[in-house]
Structures are given as C-alpha cells and as structure tokens.
C-alpha cells in the first residue's frame, strides 16, 4: 500500500496537509490562517456507497434523494433491457440523475455486475428462507490477526483454486446463499472495484484509498460473524462478477476495501429532516476526507448536497491548527459517554483536547 507522501503530491486542497499526530495516527493541519465558513474540501465522487436494503427502491442511486418512503420513479432506459432486464437494482429520482449515473465511463460493466447480483439475489429467495431458520453458528471468543489471515489463506488454497479449475457453468454449485447484509456488501465492493478500475490511479482519491487505515481486526473481534459474511461475499463476487470487474478482485484488495470501510465511512442521511428525525439511508467511503480526526470540539462541519460532500470551517483557524470533525454527533454527551461511544463504534480512546481537559478536571 502507498505512503501518505504519494497522496500529498496531488492533494486536492492547499489549505491543509496531512501529518502524524502523537495521539491518533495521521490528521489534517491548516497550512495557513483560514477564515470561518471556508470550504476546505469538496468531494464529488465516492469510492463506493451502500444504501440500506430497506431503502434501496426509495433512494436515488445517483444523488441519494429520499422521498419519505416513495419508490423512485425512474429506472434504466429501454436500451439497457438486454444487459439488465431486472433493472440492476437501480432507481433514480429523475432522468437527469439517471443520465449523470449512466454517463460514467465503462458504466455498462457496473450495470451488468449489479444485474448479475440482483438476479442471484432473487433466484436464492426460497433457499434463503430455508437457511435462515437452520442457522445456528458458534463463534470463537477472541479472534486474532493470525486467525483472520489463516481463514483467508484457507479460502485461497481450498476454495478459490478449486473453483478456478471448474467450467463456468459448474461454478454456481459453489455459490453461498447470501442474506441482505451480504447482498448489500457485495454491491458495495462491486461499486468500489468499479471506481478502482475506472478512476485515474494517480488521483488523490485512489492514492488516499491505498493509505487508509484498516480496522479489520477490531471490527471482526467485536463482530466475529463478519468474517463469515466477508467470505460469503468474496465467494459470491468471485463466481458472479463479469470479467471486467472480476479482474480487479483479489483477497488483498477485498480485505482492504472492507477493513478501511469500517473506520472511514460517512453516513448518508436524509437531508430534509433535523438530526433527531432523519433517516440513516446508508454510507459511503470518501478517501480524501478520511484523514480528518475526530474532536469533541470540532472546527469543521460536514454537509452533503446530493452526491457532493463538503467540509466547511465553523470557526477561523490558524496556520498549523488541526482540522477536525465530529464523527458521531456526540458533542452534547458527558465526557465518559462520548469516549465510550467512540471506543465502541470506532475502536479508539479519544485523545482530543476537550476530552483530555474534561478528564483532568474530573480527576482533580
Ligand atoms: C477516519 S480515520 C482518521 C485518520 C487516521 N488518524 C489515520 O491515520 O488514518 C479514524 C481513525 O483515526 C484515529 N482517531 C481519529 N480521531 C481520534 C481521536 N480524537 N483520538 C484518537 N484517535 C483518533 C482512530 O484510530 C480512528 O480509528
């Protein structure tokens, strides 16, 4: 994986740079005095996104518009009926959004891949019902890094190599029956592979992605069934993805996509409502925005406009001051509760100035 130095060469903003901190890995620091309300970063393309299963017909696949439970009106145009007779699980709020989505280079490969996953999802319906009631798996108490590596090595040696020797028509016997979470995850990884194949490999987005911190181990330790979920998704994609996207799929990239997703994704929230009543529609990964650390006294606010995300200063900052966001909407909580939320969800002990000063006051 790349070093941050490579990312900085083509960094999209000259207002801040990435440096290593003493308390929490890398973070972003202002390169000059900057006034309040400045947008320090604007991102127009995600590495990948995932819409929660229950919202997939109700959220625009292009701008994430959500209209209070109404199914989106616009589907793929007639010209796509050959490669995507079931509509590839894509819904749009209007033809402009559909046009924008379909205008991406090589988009037919993504549509074809989504359609294949969609057809598999529908065809497994009856098997899924039978499996759901049969499931009763026990998991080890504490999984180690070596356990995770071993599980993937086993999959590579015993499953990938065996399936690769089979004729295409025989491979479907080795398809796992997947559930909603696995289906959504398969679409997310497909979306990421598409971006990795079609974006400029020297773009800040791709270079930043390669440097993202992975939280694979703490996440699997906290939710052991995830390892099985990931392997089911990998098997599904290895068998079903058409050649263009399959050419980019290997275990290393797959683990990095999911490992980095766990600590670096941003929620996609309904826009029209306030923060107490808005729906959580899904999430997306924005690698260039993933070097902002959390602070319980942040100076940046995130704002989504359609499929564009901006990071704007809420106060003026001085040269060398750190630029931070609030990861979880927890600023109103007492210090120990904030720290528990961050530890449970993001696996870190918050080292921000506010936590340090409030903890010291408590101890004094
Ligand atoms: C989105 S990344 C931010 C960039 C990260 N520091 C890096 O080097 O890639 C989130 C991770 O940064 C670290 N981090 C962010 N905010 C922190 C804080 N307030 N205190 C300690 N660690 C923090 C944690 O390891 C967290 O999982």
UniProtKB/TrEMBL annotation:
SMART domains: SET. Gene3D superfamilies: SET domain (2.170.270.10). CDD domains: SET_SMYD (cd20071). GO terms for cellular component: nucleus. Residues 14-328 form the SET domain. PANTHER family: HISTONE-LYSINE N-METHYLTRANSFERASE SMYD, POTENTIAL PROTEIN LYSINE METHYLTRANSFERASE SET6. This is LADA_0G09076g1_1. The lineage of its organism: Eukaryota, Fungi, Dikarya, Ascomycota, Saccharomycotina.
């Amino acid at each position: 994986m790349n070093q941050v130095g490579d990312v900085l060469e083509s960094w999209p903003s000259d207002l801040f740079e990435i440096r290593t901190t003493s308390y929490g890995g890398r973070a972003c620091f202002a390169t000059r005095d900057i006034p309040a309300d400045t947008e320090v970063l604007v991102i127009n393309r995600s590495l990948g996104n995932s819409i929660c299963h229950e919202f997939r017909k109700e959220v625009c696949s292009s701008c994430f518009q959500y209209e209070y439970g109404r199914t989106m009106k616009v589907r793929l145009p007639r010209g796509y009926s050959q490669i995507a007779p079931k509509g590839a699980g894509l819904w749009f709020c209007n033809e402009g959004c559909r046009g924008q989505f379909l205008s991406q280079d090589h988009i037919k490969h993504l549509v074809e891949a989504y359609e294949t996953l969609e057809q598999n999802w529908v065809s497994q319906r009856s098997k899924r019902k039978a499996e759901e009631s049969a499931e009763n798996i026990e998991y080890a108490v504490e999984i180690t890094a070596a356990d995770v590596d071993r599980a993937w090595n086993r999959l590579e040696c015993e499953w990938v190599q065996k399936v690769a020797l089979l004729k295409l028509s025989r491979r479907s016997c080795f398809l796992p029956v997947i559930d909603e979470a696995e289906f959504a995850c398969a679409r997310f990884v497909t979306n990421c592979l598409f971006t990795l194949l079609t974006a400029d490999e020297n773009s800040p987005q791709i270079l930043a992605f390669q440097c993202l911190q992975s939280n694979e181990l703490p996440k699997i330790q906290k939710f052991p069934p995830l390892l099985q979920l990931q392997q089911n998704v990998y098997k599904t994609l290895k068998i079903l993805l058409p050649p263009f996207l399959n050419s980019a799929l290997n275990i290393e990239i797959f683990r990095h996509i999911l490992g980095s997703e766990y600590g670096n994704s941003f929620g996609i929230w309904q826009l029209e409502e306030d923060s107490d009543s808005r729906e959580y529609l899904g999430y997306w990964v924005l690698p260039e925005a993933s070097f902002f650390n959390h602070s319980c006294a942040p100076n940046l606010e995130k704002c989504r406009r359609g499929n564009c995300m901006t990071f704007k200063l809420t106060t003026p900052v001085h040269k060398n001051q750190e630029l931070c966001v609030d990861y979880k909407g927890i600023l109103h909580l007492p210090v120990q509760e904030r720290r528990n939320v961050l530890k449970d969800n993001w696996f870190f002990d918050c080292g921000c100035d506010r936590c340090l000063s409030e903890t010291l006051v408590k101890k004094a």
